[in-house]
Amino acid sequence: MKLKGTMLILALASYLSLSAQFSINGTVKNAENNEPLAGAHVLINNQLRTDVTNKNGQFVATSLPKGNYTIHVSFVGFESSEQTIELSSNQTIEIVLKRKSIIFEEVIVKATRANEKTPTAFENINKDEIQKLNDARNITAVIDQSLSMVTTSDAGNGIGNVGYRLRGTDETRINVTIDGVPLNDPESQGAWFVNLPDFASSVDNVQIQRGVGTSSNGAAAFGGSMNFQTLKFQPNPYAQINEIYGSYNTWKHNLNFGTGLINGHFAIDGRVSKITSDGFIDRATSDLSSIYLAGSYFGKKTMVKFLILSGKEKTYQSWDGVPSYILDTNRTYNGIGQYTDENGQTKYYNNETDNYTQSRYHLTFAHEFNSKLNITSALHYTRGFGYYEQYREDDSYSNYGVENQIIKDSTLYTSDLIRRKYLDNYFYGLTISANYQPIEKLSITLGGAINKYEGNHFGQVEWMQYAVKLANEFEYYRGTGDKRDANIYTKINYQLMKKLNLWVDCQYRNIDYKITGIDDKARAIDQHHNWNFFNPKGGISYEINEKNNVYASYSIANREPTRSNLVDAVDTMRPTPERLYDFELGYHFSHNKFSFNTNLYYMNYKDQLVFTGQINDVGDAIMKNMKKSYRAGIELSAIWQPLKFFKWQINTTLSRNKIKSYKEFVDDWDTGVQHDTLLGETNIAFSPEIIASSGITVNPYKNFEITLLSKYVGKQYIDNSSSKDRKLNGYLINNISFRYTLKSKNTSSISLFFSINNIFSEKYESNAWIYSYYVGGERKALDGYYPQAGRNFSGGISVKL
């Protein structure tokens, strides 16, 4: 009865809130010449709808209930305005914006961002939302609730090495930029956030685009893109201390600070962070540290920003997973580093770790020539160096180019040893963009980049139990990668009619890639590739009325193979570039208390690279081009806020992900050849047919917030065979958090927060790998699953001065 009563009150409140018929008719003008400002953003406080002024600088908000409203208006290059009105009848208002005395960071990411007129699927996450989810976990904790997103963690608790997939595509197919500068490693094409611990604390906002999206710099967007903008300067001095403790002996220490604006032109902002954790999986420890430092100069029309973002990680390896046969008895098992000593006892090598340091330097320049034209450019340099160390038991001398050892008239063919595999790389380049709006109906962006990568891959033997005349740090392989990536793009938005907008985006990209040396199997890997890609995109958006709009777009993207794709394959099986044809159709509805989005997509692949079970000449698995495959789905999202203290956000993705004609290859250990079976149409691995998220936020009283986050991920196949014997079961997890903020005489604010993750201790695995083979005529498998933590908690305090 109590539940029914509560639902009745909510329904009645919602009905009453929607029954009012008052409206606000507004005009936004330029204070300098009293001319209307078209394209200004208008946000009505406590409403879900964001309006954009038309060519006459006008906006209309209808069906508003009686009450007080705060109207926030913003426009790039102008100071924001905020005013409160009491609405008891229809009102007409005029808002005048003054030009900013200095140029701010909004222009830095404008060229690579989609806006309300861009006919593509995207989602913006602002600073407040990011900080509410920012605990000791990786940045993936922030994006996990986003549409079509699935995340995973090797250590099981979101710290250390993590992975993410968008529409089923992994991190090597998702373009990631920081202030418009590429983050993806040019060779692997992945963006590894473990190298940037506590990155979320330096992020002001992020835009996630799904599908091909808009042209960007760096790696191809073959499933989506993420564009991060670092912290904007704060006008007043500040310091903020964050201390967090959680399950598995997890600690995060964080200090943020800033000078505010000095002498009207200069600002310095910074952060230092330290994160440690034992991990959910046995020995999956993490020791992470990072710094962020930005010095900025702001002039009336010019901005210069120098940024340093550096991270250091040391994580105990846990990437092998847990074999399926012990999942039910030992979910935290970690076999990495395990060996048998002279007495037959099982031991673990304590330094089986991954060690890497990455430091990024950005020098960004932005200049506004006038209200119609601005440019942004960035020089960037990234230095990376690190290795992972392994204890190898009874490894063959021949694998390291070392002669078999003769000891006391006995010939030894194997030895215990310790080896390291190194990556030593440099990545540098220039990005540039210009935004031009000659008339109100037309906006043009011209941009591009040229980037250079130099990487050294080499391995050293640190120690051998039985070896004669082995030099210190004996090097047994070395290979290089030299890659140049250049692109140029043009984006045009043109308002054909009053409510109809045309979008065209064309990019030309050239990649020159040279690989030399030998790999860790002592194979020569010398090769040289040059690719030229043309990536056109186009679409339309139509505003039906102030509450409804629709869009459609068609895009083509091309992607080159990764280093491992090229190196692992033999010459006769060398992979070719992939191509994606992406069609998006969307609808958006926005009301005062309710907003709704739906997006249909069809991603048609030509020559998509997938694992088939085929192997190269030394037995390593290789990826093969599939002639035809596709992803098709519908994405739904909604926000409902019937009351000021209650907000519910939900999203769901329903999809089909298919390879049209798949041939599987399986090793036969008895014969040394492979079985091949044509399976026909199969499901693409790691592509759940349903992904759903829910977030309920309640503010029972002032400064106190409760948030319940729920996430459901349907079953996923762990190879491309669609076999029920090789899949991850679907799972539902729930997290709840509590946050209370209070004011103090000595501090700006103090926030206390506490979270319980996986409330119901769901047992689930979010990732896996498998190797199938035949022996004695029977099919068997080696595998590894990645269990995630059961019920766990974190809590902390944030003090802002």
- What percentage of the residues does DSSP assign to strands (E)? over 45%
* Biggest sheet features: 22 strands, antiparallel, barrel
Radius of gyration: 28 Å
How many strand segments? Answer: 45
Structural class: mainly beta
Overall form: globular
Q: Helical amount among residues, as a percent range?
A: under 10%
Number of helices: 4
Question: What this model shows, in words?
Answer:
The chain is mostly beta strands. The protein is 4% helix and 60% strand. The protein is built from four helices and 45 strands. The protein has a 22-stranded antiparallel β-barrel. Strands 8-13-14-11-12 form a five-stranded mixed sheet. It has a four-stranded antiparallel sheet with strand order 3-2-5-6, with no helix packed on it.
Question: What are the SSEs and their pairings?
Answer:
Layout (H helix, E strand, L loop, with lengths): L1 H18 L2 E9 L10 E4 L5 E3 L5 E7 L2 E8 L6 E7 L3 E7 L23 E5 L1 H6 L7 H4 L5 E5 L8 E5 L7 E5 L2 E2 L20 E8 L13 E7 L7 E9 L3 E9 L7 E12 L8 E13 L3 E15 L21 E3 L5 E3 L4 E18 L2 E24 L8 E3 L2 E3 L1 E26 L2 E23 L9 E22 L4 E18 L9 E17 L4 E12 L3 H6 L9 E13 L3 E22 L5 E23 L2 E23 L5 E10 L6 E12 L2 E10 L2 E2 L9 E2 L2 E12 L6 E9 L7 E11 L2 E10 L4 E9 L1
Parallel strand pairs: 1-7, 11-14, 35-43
Antiparallel strand pairs: 1-4, 2-3, 2-5, 5-6, 8-13, 9-10, 11-12, 13-14, 15-16, 15-45, 16-17, 17-18, 18-19, 19-22, 20-21, 22-23, 23-26, 24-25, 26-27, 27-28, 28-29, 29-30, 30-31, 31-32, 32-33, 33-34, 34-35, 35-36, 35-37, 37-38, 38-41, 39-40, 41-42, 42-45, 43-44
